[in-house]
Amino acid sequence: MKKPELKIHAKYCLEKLIDFGAEKAQVRIEMSDKHELNSAVGEMSLYRTISDTSIELTAIKDGKKGSMKINKLNEKNIDEAAKEAVEAAMSSQSDSANDISEFAEFKEFKNGKDMPDFEMMYDKLKSFLEYSNKKYPNVIIEESIIEFNAKRGIFLNSNGREYCFSTGNYGFHAIFTGKNGEKTSSFNYTGLELKEIQDELYRLGSVDTLIKQAEEQINTQPIPENFIGDIVITPDCLSDLIGMITENLSDHAIYSDTSLFAGKLNKKIADDSFTLSVNPVYEKMGNNEFVTSDGYEAENRVLIENGELKSYLLTLYGAKKTGLENSRTKNMNYIVESGNSNYGEMIKSIERGILLCRFSGGTPAQNGDFSGIAKNSYYIENGIIKYPISETMVAGNFAELLNNIKAISSERIDFGNALLPWIQAGGITVTGKD
Amino acid sequence: MGSQDMKEYSKLFRYHTELRIQENREFNVDIVDSAVINNQQKTQGGVGARVYKNGVWGFASNPNTDENFVKTVIENATGNAEKFASLAERKAFNFVNSEIKLSKDHRTDKIKLSKKEKIDFMMKLDEFVKANLKNVKSCRFFLRDQEIEKNLITSFGTEYFEVFTRAHIYCFLTVEKDEKKYELYESMGGYGNFEDNFTCPENLFPAIEELYEHLVKKSEGVYPEPGFKDVIIDSSLGGILAHEAVGHTTEADIVKGGSVARDLLNQKVSSELVTMVDFANTYDGKQLPVPIYVDDEGTVAEDAVLIENGILKGYMHNKESACEFDSRAQGNARAFLFSDEPLIRMRNTAILPGKSKLDDMVSSIKNGYYLMKTGNGQADSTSEFMFGIVQGYEIIDGKIGRALKDFTVSGVAFEMLKTVSMLSDEMEWENSGYCGKKQYMIVSSGSPAIKCKMNIGGR
């Protein structure tokens, strides 16, 4: 569907919401196309092309909000959905924080390609499988997917705010396991998002390193004894830690006062060396989002700067609920600033610790306590990575961990949708099986 | 939507083909501290087709289900299969197919409530908490009311219509003690529409009160002592463990991917007390929470026995893996959305009950733990698993002791199952969450209480 048609549909949606009684209304329409090549157990298996549409209609009346989400863009479905969105609003509770973004001049955003290069995608995946199968015969590439995602959309609200946007990017994901005879490693996985794929897939991000490690991890050993020591969190694993942080900065955690960081804006919550940002519109990232869910032009945002909390991740609703600033950003494209330490020196400095490559644990408790299994990870002793470990748990408190950062590497891994270093932190309880 | 006659489209099938027209409907309400922060009806539907040629698959989908779009989707899926088959080499199998025509509509016969009535119902729960439960710092009620309606036709003549339903209200309570916050949740509801599960708010008050009592005890609780301990896994938790730690390792695609279960077929993997089955739709004469009669490849669903009296007896298959393993597809190929291809998924996975009484099981432990509820769990190809335990108690000298603060348990499932020494004579089913693989999927799991040994993590 061409852009003018999308605009006509969006205007029609808005008119219908107002016709049915909405005092304030907003519409977001996104049309997406995915081209996906899949491999199973090292062989090409599926070519999938999917088209979809997302039409989200939001109505506010008497301070009450309701919404309807459908995926069929025709008048009959829109009429029904607009009516239901207004009915949903009327059924709800009044809340003064329910609102829509104010008027802004029209803007249009475009990034990435509209159509994929199928031959390139096929060749890259084939080459990846051939390389992995040949170089790492003891690793099974259980699943690998190369995909192209194109999206075009419009945001429109009854205050006259209108944005059009389109993006296109490639993605790659792989899941793999080391296997030799009856011995099996833990599975591991990694992923990338890129606007263009110019290099071989195995050379990008941490793909080759992790597959190589899977082969090493077929033979594991328990740690010699329980200890409290350092962990070095790899870039792949660091996104888990960042997820714990951003969870505590979101609307719900802040206005329900259940966040570990509630009331800590402009206060120190991490070591001085730690700086974290979200970067939805940074053009060098593999994927961009230009318009926030509440209709603001998305901005890159520093969340933690030199250890100090600089911004929450609040939407318009969260901002009005708390009286704090609307963050006008998207929780994506993490960048952690590099540090002064060389990765090798970092390992050398550790008397006893764990190279934490994957954390199998869940959301920390509301008091910040976490514990989980150190998967695909290694035991470090006297500055040397000794061996891959089995049945080892790491536990600590993630608010304390942020303050116990000892070093951040100068090297970083570029995943396309994140740029992350290795981080060394102390005070972690490491326990093996009795 | 409703049941549709799609036979005309089968004239366009040139190879082994599945055609599915599907709509997922969901009404969500999220109330946090008396504020309705989300109130949304979501409908996602369309047509998807999958075609098999020379060992590879082509898939295409579109949200529009008008005749011309359906035809285009079939053409595109066929074209994708042909294009891929011309490039990729993969062994092709002759699938075992049998034709069936069936219709299963799980929607309620009761009068449907309006959105306002459902929100009012939820607000009464919120009011109950405010009026009756002291020192609750935050209270959240989340409703997920779902229907999934699908029409399937295959090139081998199967025609299937199904409407699946489930409705849950999740209650999350937070209290604060000594400047630290503690949370617990409870899911209420299950198979059926909202009207089947929730007749009046007062019926849910006892469960919310019980949750609150556990939470207050937890805030005053202790951390467990780390180590390899005797534990009782509550029946509400055992099924999730069976699903995550054992079930996934026996899905044939994971088996091919290197799972430890690949080398354990017909070997002893657990105590003789343990029998584990992935049920299709019925157990003990009763319909299960996720009843599957025909899967999304058009296979008639039957029970898949995974472990029988401690011996690993089989895997879960789709048509392709069944050929590869010289086994039989039993209805495990499932897709979540119209735009998803079927994957090997569990349905109603359960450890069957034993003969012990729960009280006797608790009495038999001198120093151990009673694990009641998990916040999350993960397992991998080695069957090594971890579960975050958010609700549990000490067992000291055969009696329930102090409550426990959040901690994690871990182990290797095929080793842990060998330590099972008692199974209770009652079992519990739940279907409140999603299983994540490449796509989400609704599954259920069941279990009795299990006495075994497990690694307790600590701080």
Task: State the gist of this model.
The complex is a heterodimer of chains A (434) and B (459). Chain A is 23% helix and 39% strand.
Write the layout of secondary structure elements.
The complex is a heterodimer of chains A (434) and B (459).
Chain A: H1 3-19, E1 24-40, E2 43-61, E3 64-70, H2 75-91, E4 107-111, H3 118-135, E5 139-157, E6 162-180, E7 183-184, E8 188-194, H4 207-216, E9 227-233, H5 235-247, H6 251-255, E10 276-278, E11 301-305, E12 308-309, H7 316-322, E13 334-336, H8 343-348, E14 352-356, E15 358-361, E16 369-375, E17 378-381, E18 384-388, E19 392-397, H9 398-403, E20 405-414, E21 418-432
Parallel strand pairs in A: 4-6, 9-14, 13-21
Antiparallel strand pairs in A: 1-2, 1-5, 2-3, 5-6, 6-7, 6-8, 9-21, 10-11, 10-13, 11-12, 14-17, 15-16, 16-19, 17-18, 19-21, 20-21
Helix pairs in contact in A: 1-2
Chain B: E1 16-32, E2 35-53, E3 56-62, H1 67-87, E4 101-105, H2 115-132, E5 136-154, E6 159-177, E7 180-191, H3 194-197, H4 205-219, E8 227-233, H5 235-247, H6 252-256, E9 276-279, E10 282-283, E11 286-287, E12 304-308, E13 311-312, H7 319-324, E14 333-334, E15 343-344, E16 348-351, H8 358-363, E17 367-379, E18 384-396, E19 399-403, E20 407-412, H9 413-416, E21 422-430, E22 434-436, E23 440-442, E24 444-456
Parallel strand pairs in B: 4-6, 8-17, 16-24
Antiparallel strand pairs in B: 1-2, 1-5, 2-3, 5-6, 6-7, 8-24, 9-12, 9-16, 10-11, 12-13, 14-15, 17-18, 18-19, 18-20, 20-24, 21-24, 22-23
Can you walk me through this structure?
The complex is a heterodimer of chains A (434) and B (459). By secondary structure, chain A is an alpha+beta fold. Helix content of chain A is 23%, strand content 39%. In chain A, the strands form 2 sheets. In chain A, strands 9, 10, 11, 12, 13, 14, 15, 16, 17, 18, 19, 20 and 21 form a 13-stranded mixed beta sheet that branches. In chain A, strands 1, 2, 3, 4, 5, 6, 7 and 8 form an 8-stranded mixed beta sheet that branches. In chain A, strand 17 and strand 18 form a beta hairpin. The longest helix of chain A has 18 residues, at 118-135. Chain B is α+β, with helices and mostly antiparallel strands. Helices cover 20% and strands 42% of the residues of chain B. In chain B, the strands form 5 sheets. In chain B, strands 1, 2, 3, 4, 5, 6 and 7 form a 7-stranded mixed beta sheet that branches. Chain B has a 5-stranded mixed barrel with strand order 8-17-18-20-24. In chain B, a hairpin with a 4-residue loop joins strand 5 and strand 6. The radius of gyration of chain B is 24 Å and the shape is globular. The mean pLDDT of chain B is 95. The chains are: A alpha+beta (434), B alpha+beta (459). Chains A and B meet through strand 2, strand 3, helix 2, strand 5 and strand 6 of A and strand 2, strand 3, helix 1, helix 2 and strand 5 of B. Strand 2 of chain A pairs parallel with strand 3 of chain B.
